[in-house]
Amino acid sequence: MKISRLIGIITILQQKGKVTAPYLAEKFEVSCRTIQRDVEELCRAGIPLVTARGADGGIRIMEGFHLDTTVFTKEELEAVLVGLKSLDSVSGSHRHMLLSEKLGAVSGTEHMMIDLSSFYKDSLSRKIELLNDAIRENRCVRFHYYYKRGEEDKLVEPMRLVFQWSAWYIFGYCPAREDFRLYKLNRLWELQLTEAEFKPREIPAGKLRFGQNMTDDIVITALYEPGEAYRLVEEYGPGSYQVKEDGRLSAEWGFSSYEKAMDWFLSFGSRVQVIAPEEFRALFAAELKKALRQYEGEEKER
Asked: Which of 24, 38, 55, 65 is the most exposed place for a label (fewest CB within 10 A)?
């Protein structure tokens, strides 16, 4: 903490020019005597600080002395604060405000807002805090996980918290599978920090390249209603489709599996028509008929 306080004092003096010892003491939550010792230590380190008593007194850097500020540029400090603010959006803490107040650098970051949370912010924050503790302490975690194929209780050695594909994941080693796995936090519930400790494993480089095995080899052609242009642009850009004579939008692109493609096309309901390949066209039509039969069955029961 001492070295961070010394750096903070230098940064404040660079920004404000002159401040009082009580001001610094309040900022860093220490006594005025501690601030005086810090000033003496900075002077011994070669940074000439001048102190003056009286109504117009205070602490300042000697005129004519220029400190190399490559570590403390305004832009870099703002970048650090924006990063802390984004993490605070999911951790529930206020580290960016505390650092801003201590360094006198609140302004300059309001123009950029990064919210890494979701509709599950409260539960997500608790999970991230607990997983952070588990990673720092090398302790296993238990949780109940929901897959598309079902659900399962897991014991995992947590190693990395990952924000990717607009969602949070925990990356770790699963002893039961004897391999590294990535688990989505919103599918992970009943999270518990266990007493079981683990020895950190060496992570093969390829394991951290998430999604490297996802290929888009299955090319599907479809026609979309004109009102769906915004979704196509959002996913693939404004040049991803062609406008047909009837106004519908023709597009083709790849998917990693029929399962992924099915989820995508079903989200359009009746506003899409699959053209090719014939195999997927038949599967998609069968899925739509299956959904229709469910509603027809409800109508008969009524």
From this structure: 55
Instruction: Express each pLDDT in 48-72 by its tens digit.
Output: 888 888 777 899 888 877 665 555 5
CA geometry: angle at 34 spanning 31 and 39, to 5°? 130
Element (H, E) at 207: none
SS3 191: strand
What are the C-alpha distances in Å from 37 to residues 6, 107, 140, 171, 289? 10, 30, 43, 45, 79
Task: Compute CA distances 130 → 165, 277, 288, whole Å.
Answer: 22, 46, 42
The rounded distance, in Å, linking the Cα atoms of 294 and 188 is 30
Tokens 């720092």 -> residue? 136
- Tell me the sheet residues that pair with 56: none
Peptide bond into 277 cis (omega under 30): yes
DSSP string, 75-98: HHHHHHHHHHHHHHHHH---HHHH
**Crossing angle (nearest 10°) for helices 2-16 and 32-44:** 80
Query: How is 24-70 classified by DSSP, letter by letter?
Result: HHHHHTS-HHHHHHHHHHHHHTT--EEEE-STT-EEEEPTT-----T
Is residue 86 scored above 80 in pLDDT? Answer: no
| Contacts of residue 188, Cβ cutoff 8 Å, sequence gap at least 6 | 127, 143, 144, 145, 170
